[in-house]
Amino acid sequence: MKLTLRVWRQRNADADGAMSTYEVDDISADMSFLEMLDTLNEELILKGEDPVAFDHDCREGICGACSLVINGDAHGPERTTSCQLHMRSFEDGDTIDIEPWRASAFPVVKDLVVDRSAFDRIIQAGGYVTAPTGAAPEAHATPVPKPDADFAFEHAECIGCGACVAACPNGAAMLFTSAKINHLNVLPQGAPERETRVLDMVAQMDEEGFGGCTLAGECATACPKGIPLVSITGMNKEWLRATRKAGKR
Amino acid sequence: MTRTMWDSSVGKKTVMAASGLIMLGYLVVHMLGNLKIFFGSDEFNHYAHWLRTIGEPFLHYEWALWIIRVVLVAAVVAHAVSAYQLSRRDIRARPTKYVHKKPRASYATRTMRWGGIILGLFIVWHILDLTTGTVHPGGFQHGHPYQNVIDTFSTWYGNVIYIVAMLALGLHVRHGFWSAAQTLGVGSRTRDRAFKTIANVLALVLTAGFIAVPVGVMTGVVS
């Protein structure tokens, strides 16, 4: 395959960026999207140019590092991560636009790399349980009803890639935050911090400068792990419940 | 508690949802009342007068009407201020647009902000036209709403403003009602279809019910 790439190039956080056009040839349909970018970078290095910086780690769709907006879609046209997207999803001769996640809470570090530490701070605000850790406890010591376990697991699938923020017209982190809250709040292990978790995490989310939800649904469409939009409804419910309880104290 | 409500983006959205539902409830009643125009001037004018005597003798003349007006103004202000502040936050959160643009979300979703502004302006015109009579075409007569309505819908611009606003209302309610259910945490996977259906039915019935009046005047059914 022969492709034309239009890639966002930005020297550093303070520099102005712009789209640069590159031609790549001999791209196999079986390559992943990141392997295609590796091919481009090899050529750039051989020519003595600065390679395109992009985030990647596991390359098997579970770490949440890769973060490319491809032709206007977070992670591209398939519902998966950029690393699990294959070039067979494109046609020979296509022009592909590659941009970084866009949100004021995710500032560009270089080229396609953004700083997602705002997510870490949301987790630090309450995305954990304070139960003592150590060796894995006996699985039947704390019974969890099957529907609750399934619900928790569905939300635990969130890999924190930030595609929801990138896709949201308001740059909101509601889907990410709700996935983390719902995951822990439904489980007995997460029960002691059920109220403080949702109040603190939502407060931190606002503090980081993320937008709010207008129920456009773009986040759930972009999510490579299929976190549903109704997850946000669940978070709102938990937040209202916690606010009521806090008011009574 | 109120302070945390207003300080949080989730809480502010709750204010928007609750105030929206208050206005929506009023609109259903308002639309049903309007339809009485199809039963003649006596019935319509009598109904309009009754609005001032609701609650008598417990309430004084027009008290109920003024209570409703105060609640509605509070709802409009709360809705608009929360919408303005949340929109400011949303726009700040996404300062850079993507170079590669794609059509996003449904038409109803994308037009919430502009639709809301159109509806706000409409409310101002509507009150100046048919409540105070300030911008009313022809001689505005207090206590004769039947004739006043016919006067308004005998002008081309009266019909255009009203019908455009009611179409905007339909779109606004369509996304707004369903969104309110999500914001208030009552939506769920199993209830999603029900909420979407109620939203669509409300939007359609309100728009059709309100537009029936200018259409009635234009076609001569109401004269």
- CATH class of chain B equals Mainly Alpha
- Structural class of the helices, strands and pairings of chain B? mainly alpha
CATH superfamily of the largest domain in chain A: Alpha-helical ferredoxin
Q: How far is the first residue's CA from the last residue's CA of chain B?
A: 53 Å
Mean pLDDT value of chain A: 95
CATH topology of chain B: 3 helical TM bundles of succinate and fumarate reductases
In CATH, the architecture of chain B is: Up-down Bundle
Give a topology summary.
The complex is a heterodimer of chains A (about 250) and B (about 220).
Chain A: E1 3-9, E2 18-24, H1 33-46, E3 69-70, E4 73-74, E5 95-99, E6 108-110, E7 113-114, H2 117-124, H3 146-156, H4 163-167, H5 174-185, H6 194-207, H7 218-222, H8 230-248
Parallel strand pairs in A: 1-5
Antiparallel strand pairs in A: 1-2, 3-4, 3-5, 6-7
Helix pairs in contact in A: 2-6, 3-5, 5-6, 5-8, 6-8
Chain B: H1 2-7, H2 9-34, H3 41-53, H4 63-93, H5 107-110, H6 112-130, H7 145-152, H8 156-183, H9 192-218
Helix pairs in contact in B: 2-4, 2-8, 2-9, 6-8, 8-9
